[in-house]
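C-alpha cells incoming
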C-alpha cells in the first residue's frame, strides 16, 4: 500500500471517528432540546433581510453589555447600526425612553460634526422613532433611530442613515425594517 493511500485511509478513519463521536455526544441531550443560539445571530436576524447582500456588507460583535450589528453600503452611502442592549438587572418598558436621553445621543453621535433632533414619535408596539439631521465632514445626512423594548433584559436600538438628498431611499429601507413605524410625521 502506498504511503499516500495509507495517509488518506488514516484521515478518513479519523474523520469517521470524529463524526461518530459527535453523533454520540449529540444523542446525550434530551430529545427536543434546542441548542442555545448565539445572540449575534439574533442581532443579525433582526435586520439582515432588509439589506441586499450584494449591496451591503455586514458585521457583528458580541460584548458583555450589548450585541451589535452593522450594515454598510458605500455604493448608496447607507449605514445601519443595531445594538441589542443588555439590561441584566432588568428595565421596565416605561424607563426605556428616559434611558435614551440627550446624554445618550451625545455619546452615540460623538463622531458626527453636529446633530439635531427633528422629530420623535411613539408607536403602540413599544417602538419609539427619533429622526435627526447629522453632519459628517461636509455632508448632511438624515438619521432615523428606533428603540424597541423587547423584554425586561433586552432593548433594541437601531439607526439608519442616508444622505439628506436620499430621503426616498431612506424611506424604502426604513419601511423594510419597521413597516408600521418607518417615519415620523412630526413631534408627538
Amino acid at each position: 500500500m502506498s504511503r499516500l493511500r495509507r495517509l488518506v485511509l488514516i484521515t478518513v478513519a479519523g474523520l469517521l471517528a470524529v463524526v461518530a463521536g459527535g453523533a454520540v455526544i449529540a444523542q446525550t441531550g434530551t430529545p427536543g432540546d434546542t441548542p442555545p443560539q448565539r445572540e449575534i445571530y439574533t442581532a443579525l436576524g433582526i435586520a439582515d433581510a432588509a439589506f441586499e447582500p450584494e449591496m451591503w456588507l455586514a458585521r457583528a460583535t458580541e460584548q458583555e453589555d450589548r450585541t451589535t450589528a452593522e450594515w454598510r453600503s458605500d455604493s448608496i452611502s447607507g449605514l445601519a447600526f443595531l445594538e441589542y442592549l443588555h439590561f441584566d438587572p432588568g428595565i421596565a418598558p416605561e424607563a426605556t425612553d428616559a434611558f435614551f436621553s440627550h446624554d445618550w445621543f451625545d455619546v452615540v453621535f460623538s463622531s458626527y460634526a453636529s446633530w439635531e433632533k427633528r422629530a420623535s414619535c411613539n408607536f403602540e408596539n413599544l417602538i419609539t422613532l427619533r429622526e435627526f439631521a447629522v453632519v459628517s465632514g461636509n455632508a448632511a445626512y438624515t438619521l432615523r433611530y428606533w428603540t424597541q423594548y423587547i423584554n425586561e433584559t433586552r432593548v433594541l436600538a437601531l439607526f439608519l442613515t442616508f444622505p439628506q438628498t436620499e430621503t426616498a431611499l431612506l424611506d424604502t429601507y426604513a419601511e423594510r425594517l419597521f413597516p408600521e413605524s418607518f417615519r415620523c410625521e412630526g413631534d408627538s
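note: The helical segments are 3-27, 39-47, 96-99, 102-108, 167-177.
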